[in-house]
Amino acid sequence: MISRRAAEIQPFLAMEVLERATALERQGVRIIHLELGEPDFPTPACIQEAAARALKEGRTKYTHSLGLPVLREAVAEHYASRYGVTVSPDQVLVTAGTSPAMWLLFSALLREGDEVILTNPHYACYPNIVRFAGGEPVLVPTPETDGFQFRPEAVAAACTARTRAILVNSPANPTGALLPPERMRALADLGPLLVSDEIYHGLTYEGREHSVLEFTERAVVLNGFSKAYAMTGWRLGYLILPPALVRPLQKMHQNFFISASDFVQWAAVAALREAGPDVERMRKTYDERRRFLLQGLRGLGFGVRHEPTGAFYILADARRFGSDSLRLAFVILERAHVGLAPGIDFGSGAEGYLRFSYANSMANLEEALARLKRYLAAGWLRGAGRGERRVRPRVDLLIFDLDGTLVDSRLDLTASVNHALRDLGLPPLPVDAVARFVGDGVRPLLARALAAARGVSDGADVERGIQVFREHYAAHLLDATRPYPGVPEALAALRHKAMAVATNKPRAYALAILEGLGLGHHFRLVLGGDSTPHAKPHPAQAEAILATLGLPATATLVVGDGPQDVAMARAAGCAACAVTYGLRSREELEATAPDFLLDDLRDLPLRIR
User: Fold this and answer.
1) What is residue 497's DSSP assignment?
2) Which residues on neighbouring strands pair with residue 168, listed in sequence order?
3) With contact defined as beta carbons under 8 Å apart, do 201 and 223 qualify?
4) Which residue among 3, 311, 459, 513 is the one 20 to 30 A from 441 at the CA level?
5) Which of 423, 275, 300, 421 is nearest to 354 (CA)?
6) What are the tens digits of pLDDT across the range 22-58?
7) How would you list the strands of the sheet with 526-527, edge to edge?
8) Are residues 566 and 577 in contact, defined by beta-carbon separation less than 8 angstroms?
């Protein structure tokens, strides 16, 4: 069993895009990666040389839990010279990256139900970290018409007695927006602790960034070396804390992480004291790419009303091509072979947008634009702005359980699929044929494919094992279906319908099965352990299913046989739900449901078939 908070944490969708992109690359496809915010520059030579010296000098031991004194002094010097603020080295806590720093901070600050105010759009991981620490993210709209920036009066209206912090990110991910100093000062005057994520400082192109410490001492700074210094893999960040927070976070750091890496901290000293010219060179190159990509995206029809002036992202309005950003991102990846981050990853305020990272070479940016131009010219994306209409069947979504359909001997596949086919106006699968198909065709095929995969993966080459499984299964599936009348035709019909799959099988094997069925390109969501009976679906997860498939929140779902599937429908706010097999009454459904699902099930309009 896993904890509820682990079960409910949402995936980082930009990483989901990357994972699919790498799978395509293993098949020989060349992908242009604009989905992640990772500098393409090598770490500056002076930093690498400092790390090498430290290693040669044997600096591979534990350090002070707050960090090397010389590094904390260098951080204080940096903030004094760049922002004119006084920071004591004793206020600096060095961590193995900025994300662990954020986790430490919110774990220390938040009690159950405490609130943290975030922008909408926002960095994708902020709400997950806040929720994991027991808090509640409160999203304040920051629309493009207002430059994607906090309005202090809107933030003030969102503050309650439970507000513990306001999180500011300037320059911002995903928008590249820079918060004006007068707004930052007004936010500092509101009362709650101001937490400033300054990881993109050093990467601004029009005007300069401001540290929160210029406006108040009652603030926390999150910063690190990943972005400006091209050190993502070095994993080093730091916090600048009010004195009262230093000791509590130090004790947490001692217990959970002990200290940051010794030799990496020496490299960071060189970054702060020697790498200024390298940072400036990279900044100028990013600016050239920014202007080039802005012009190119606008020429293709993407909307950019507010030009980003920091970080290395453009959040472009793609709604003329379709309102479902997750679907757009994956369709573009599959067809144009360009990796982009879907706007929905960054909150509802970015839905319909795509995030383009220009932390890539000019040659790759040119190639990406050329691919998008060819793709759009081919008409593969037809936007609602040009009058496209979707005709949806009454049943919008079929959820079925891989474990109960393709692996077990039960005929769950027959019942589930036939109810859906009937509602879609399609002929049903012949029961006898499916019985033989599942029993004589698919199960032995799966067994052989898994055996072939285990022969490789037992040798610790898991990726190769997955590849062998996929190739073996896909190669023989069509032959396995041919003897069973109606089965190949029914599967072909289902390929064109919106589908989602709930499974607790390993993700890669599940995808391999689906691709073998010819369904892999028609949906992009496989729910991992979340399909287990005791894992309560988070509403955002259910909404993501519908958003992925371009369906409204009022969609009717045809689901499998369990309370979890019904709860997923409820969490998505669906108007109705149909249980297609296995249960004969609402009472039986409620009797088999975990206690935490009962209220959802009682409130949901439900049809038992």
Assistant:
1) S
2) 196
3) yes
4) 459
5) 300
6) 988 988 889 999 999 999 999 999 999 999 999 999 9
7) 526-527, 499-502, 397-401, 556-559, 576-579, 606-608
8) yes
